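To close the section, here is one more complete example, presented without commentary so you can practise reading it yourself. The ligand is 3-isopropylmalic acid.
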Amino acid sequence: MSKKVLVLPGDGIGPEIVAEAVKVLNKVNESFSLGLELEEGLVGGAGYDAAGTPLPAETLEKALAADAILLGAVGGPKWDKLEDRALRPEQGLLGIRKNLELFGNLRPAILYPQLAEASTLKAEVVSGLDILIVRELTGGIYFGKPRGIRTLENGDREGYNTYVYNETEIRRIGRVAFESAMKRNKKLCSVDKANVLEVTVLWREIMEELAPEYPEVELSHMYVDNAAMQLVRAPKQFDVIVTGNMFGDILSDAAAMLTGSIGMLPSASLDKNNKGMYEPCHGSAPDIAGKGIANPLATILSVAMMLRYTFGEGAAADAIEAAVSKVLDQGLRTGDIYSEGMTRVGTAEMGDAVLAAL
Amino acid sequence: MSKKVLVLPGDGIGPEIVAEAVKVLNKVNESFSLGLELEEGLVGGAGYDAAGTPLPAETLEKALAADAILLGAVGGPKWDKLEDRALRPEQGLLGIRKNLELFGNLRPAILYPQLAEASTLKAEVVSGLDILIVRELTGGIYFGKPRGIRTLENGDREGYNTYVYNETEIRRIGRVAFESAMKRNKKLCSVDKANVLEVTVLWREIMEELAPEYPEVELSHMYVDNAAMQLVRAPKQFDVIVTGNMFGDILSDAAAMLTGSIGMLPSASLDKNNKGMYEPCHGSAPDIAGKGIANPLATILSVAMMLRYTFGEGAAADAIEAAVSKVLDQGLRTGDIYSEGMTRVGTAEMGDAVLAAL
Ligand SMILES: CC(C)[C@H](C(=O)O)[C@@H](O)C(=O)O
Ligand SMILES: CC(C)[C@H](C(=O)O)[C@@H](O)C(=O)O
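Output:
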């Protein structure tokens, strides 16, 4: 079996944090004899600068051939003014998701006990928080057609997008969610807006239809506005949340921020065979790029997810997660998670500390 | 000039809380010689039970003839199983919004100093919070066509909705937002998803186009996922937020919950002449309906908004708001905002206390 990993550093802090994650990956590759082969590619603004497109053909080819992809982050002010939206960095990311059919996006929101203070929420509301958001990633309004901006007969312009899901798409993300719930606390909350949007009426119906196949999982439904409220009010009521692409984008960011340490949160985007792209939940942070101060832990933890989900190497994944926990115990902190009394370190120091802890 | 107020108690706790608000309205109507004429109507589940539809023709007629509407809340489990979605209580609400062209939805999220403890967020993050969310209410994906559920050639069903805005719709809500910002701290943040959705590319463009007309207002743009995060991270960075119907639904609920006292938050939905519907931000709370324990303050504060926005009676509005503040100072609390050492009161007692404080 081939075990190819494509590394896409991307833009902003991407190259810095990915460099640390690659150190960690190389180390476990050796010590656990994983037999992984790494290669690099260009994506996002880096792709545009080098090849005139955020998803160069060569990158897409490598991505299709790889078993797993490690992505840093894409985007930055440098490319925000590109008139042709198809050339913007985000399109590289969306293009990989779509072309590789990475429909299953897993976004854990975990509060590390060592970082409890970082949350803007009261300790009792978030202590021990551990939610998994399962977001559909290749459908919904992100990719629905027709879409565009047209001129009406009266001369007015009108913008339009299409929010669309068919039952096959809903069913496959539903299964990912039910199966994730089975491995956790067996509670699944499906988020929709079925009191207003027909597409989510179908969503709710299919989730209900799947439920009997997973009798141990307790399925509930919640409107998206209420879900946004409940995440602020009592986030620990949730175990697994499943929702569409757009709602998932919003809720997973809100959930991540509940922990106060978005620099700590990894994510996985999987296809039906668990081939996947792994990336930190945070963005490319152009304001601190190149300064060597970004937090590499979310990217390092993304490597752990990759080993667990794509390569089935649970022991190696555990080792990385334990090492991260250890450096937190040692009091090492990058600026984003720094608090009084801790030791402030840079990106490379943090990466080296994880290596040492392995 | 006619000064007609239509009172729509609706469902669940609606009748109880509206009764208290009507007491308050009657009192200021007299003491400030406002000359308002009140009448009642049926909407939501109450409309369905009495007339077989959530928006009886008589109610719509009265609504069209009124200058302002005071609504309690609609919905409840009793009507959730209605197969025909057009008959569900929510459709009464959506029908009034649409028929009366109440496109400008103002949703303040204010933290009352007396209730600072109620928030799940740390005091320093939310103390003094005072945000206004301006939500477009008669367009976007809520009303866009085509919409529905169809069967594809392969037998699969597919659900679809259309997210659409034309520039006229965007411009008119934009003006409401800029004008609101002018009356406040002159900061306006427009929330969109312009990196993915064309309809919001147009949204952003029109907001930019309006900016020169309001040179004192500092306009910024934020993606909706980031906005959801920033509301949790540092909500006080915002003054006025303007966004479309769906994003506004989600963000305004999240913002309301930041205060921890959604039972305190009123809202206004205005047409181009400031005719409007006023209602609490919270729902019909069927679980506590009929028990006399619901918090009537959001509905009472909705009356204040009505007097200020539709009738230009700032002094009467101020008086109501001052009275509400006074009862909070007195330590009176309904269950939803109760904390140790305070005096727990029921719906009617709270209403009476506001009357007495007037
Ligand atoms: C960059 C952007 C297109 C992307 C998205 O909206 O999916 C990002 O916000 C994310 O959540 O991965
Ligand atoms: C009841 C529902 C249709 C409504 C909406 O989504 O607009 C409610 O959530 C609101 O925010 O007023």
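Once you have examined the tokens, check your reading against these statements. The domain at 1-120+262-358 of chain A is CATH 3.40.718.10 (Isopropylmalate Dehydrogenase). Residues A 90, 93-94, 249; B 195-196, 225 surround 3-isopropylmalic acid (ligand 1) (CB under 6 Å).
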